[in-house]
Amino acid sequence: MILAGCGGPISTAITDAPRSAAPLRLAALNALDARVARVAFRLSDANAALCPAIRQSAGWALHAASQYSEELRPYAQARFGLDGDLPGLLTVPAGSPAAIAGLQEGDLVLAVNGRALARGPDRREAAFEGLAANIAVIDRSLANGSTQLTVRRNGAEIPITVTPRRACGYEVQLNPSDELNARADGRRLFISTALAGFAETDDELAVILGHELAHHVLRHRVWNESGGAARRENESVWRAEGGEGGAEQQADRVGLYLAARAGYDPAVAAPFWRRFGASNWRVRFPQIVHASAESRARSLEAVRHEIELKQRAGENLVP
Ligand SMILES: [Zn+2]
């Protein structure tokens, strides 16, 4: 999105800043992760018909001990029963294929279709590769349909068959960062912990993630993948992307439709932007790529009106 222009650094390992005690930071991070995963699942599930890339999704959010910093890891292991690179279920959104299959938060995935996943070596540094490799094994099986998992729950090993559903084919990732930022890179959506925390409700989070998902729906990924400062200095690019009717305004419009289609309240978008603008000087004035918070709020009011007219008339919410 947004704010600082759909840009910013990517990190996949979960690290931490020395601010509060490790268990508190872990709890806050996990709570945000769960919220982001829940909203992302609903958006991806409800908008599969509009997404150019589709995947078979279980709807869960997975994490692993190896992904946490040395300081947070013992607490993550104790709280969730995590072990090495083995994927644990951090979030099982209501109504998701994972929930329907009977999976629960805290389950640890040991095997897929009878084949053991790799626990990996003990590492000091936080790393994502081991978990990513295990997720890839699971995703390959889900792509072919029903998948049998062996999970550890309260010390017992339980077989559970999960039947995935078509969903938008993008990973959503929460990046620990103080920057108020979100972005889309063509395959994934990223949102910073600061921005996810700024969204007070799931409806507000759906406005942000809807905007990012809209960049995928609108196939803006080429720009997002390469959109660095050099390109943003080009005035014709600015007009095409950030000006009236540009890519960002399109993403705001389509994003609000995506949120409404997933059952979120489109009325929160304009007040959210005004609150955001009032709290963050960078969005109070028009930026190179993104219009000012106030002009975005006004455009979003118009889109909200359009959506509500369609809802009242019982029409399909197609942007
Ligand atoms: Zn954007």
TrEMBL record:
InterPro entries in alphabetical order: Mito/Outer_Membr_Metalloprot, PDZ, PDZ_6, PDZ_sf, Peptidase_M48
GO molecular function: metal ion binding; metalloendopeptidase activity
One cellular component (GO) term of this entry: membrane
Keyword Zinc: yes
Note on cofactor: Binds 1 zinc ion per subunit.
Superkingdom of this protein's organism: Bacteria
Family per similarity comment: Belongs to the peptidase M48 family.
Name used for this protein in its record: PDZ domain-containing protein
Species, as recorded: Brevundimonas basaltis
